[in-house]
Amino acid sequence: MAEQDVALTEWLKPFVEKLGHKKRRQMCPVYISGLIGPGDRKSIEPMAERLAPDRYDRLHHFISDGICDAGPLEAELAVQADRIVGGSRCISGD
């Protein structure tokens, strides 16, 4: 499991850097781990119980406040998708 945690942390790094606030950067990996990790219930309370029992409020705050400007995350997603998929872009009609 530790290898998976390191791999996830590395993959998330460019996205987390775009979140700005320190608490948001800390809680993002916890939330993503909760979504993709084991456990049937993917709501905040059971994920916090499994991954960060002492940080339920922070995890809830991370989700409930939302992101004011998703632009930097969307731009990073495009960069990472391009890096992973690679190749030239096809535009219809070319």
UniProtKB/TrEMBL annotation:
Annotated Pfam families: DDE_5
Domain Transposase IS701-like DDE: 14-89
Recorded coiled-coil stretches: none
Superkingdom: Bacteria
InterPro entries, per database record: IS701-like, IS701-like_DDE_dom
PANTHER family: TRANSPOSASE
Official protein name in the record: SRSO17 transposase
